[in-house]
């Protein structure tokens, strides 16, 4: 699966060649609206990552959503224990379709660290 993803990230579709071969817009139909792809299309913007991480944390049952900010620490600011932190990290993995290695997951104890990790590790296909 990883090899497939790596190959597809670098695959380019020459959209302009469709019109260069004699097809006009009406013959192409919906293909005319395809945009060019880049290797970063599957990478979320920092703002999207922040919003989704905060949504995951806010939806955790033991968390007061009003206390959740991009700078919040799970234990110090939200009063969560280590098991709660593990559950939040697992929810983040599920939200972003990621597998965070245990060594890395153990380090994630705040929104800034979760946001940084997710932003630097694009979603799987």
UniProtKB/TrEMBL annotation:
Q: Which UniProt keywords apply?
A: Electron transport, Fatty acid biosynthesis, Fatty acid metabolism, Lipid biosynthesis, Lipid metabolism, Mitochondrion, Phosphopantetheine, Phosphoprotein, Respiratory chain, Transit peptide, Transport
User: Does the UniProt entry include the keyword Phosphoprotein?
Assistant: yes
- Enumerate the subcellular locations listed in this protein's record, separating them with semicolons: Mitochondrion
Functional pathway? Lipid metabolism; fatty acid biosynthesis
Q: Listed GO molecular functions?
A: acyl binding; acyl carrier activity
Which domain of life, per UniProt? Eukaryota
Q: Which Pfam families match?
A: PP-binding
Where does the record place the Carrier domain?
47-122
Matching Gene3D superfamilies: ACP-like
PROSITE patterns noted in UniProt: CARRIER (PS50075), PHOSPHOPANTETHEINE (PS00012)
**What InterPro entries does the database record attribute to this sequence?**
ACP, ACP-like_sf, PP-bd_ACP, Ppantetheine_attach_site
CC per GO annotation? mitochondrion
User: PANTHER family from the entry?
Assistant: ACYL CARRIER PROTEIN, ACYL CARRIER PROTEIN, MITOCHONDRIAL
Give the NCBIfam families listed for this entry.
Answer: acyl_carrier, PRK00982.1-2
Q: How does it assemble?
A: Complex I is composed of at least 49 different subunits.
Entry's family note: Belongs to the acyl carrier protein (ACP) family.
**HAMAP family, A to Z:** Acyl_carrier
What role does it play? Carrier of the growing fatty acid chain in fatty acid biosynthesis. May be involved in the synthesis of short and medium chain fatty acids. Accessory and non-catalytic subunit of the mitochondrial membrane respiratory chain NADH dehydrogenase (Complex I), which functions in the transfer of electrons from NADH to the respiratory chain.
The protein depicted here goes by the name Acyl carrier protein
Q: Which organism is it from?
A: Microthlaspi erraticum
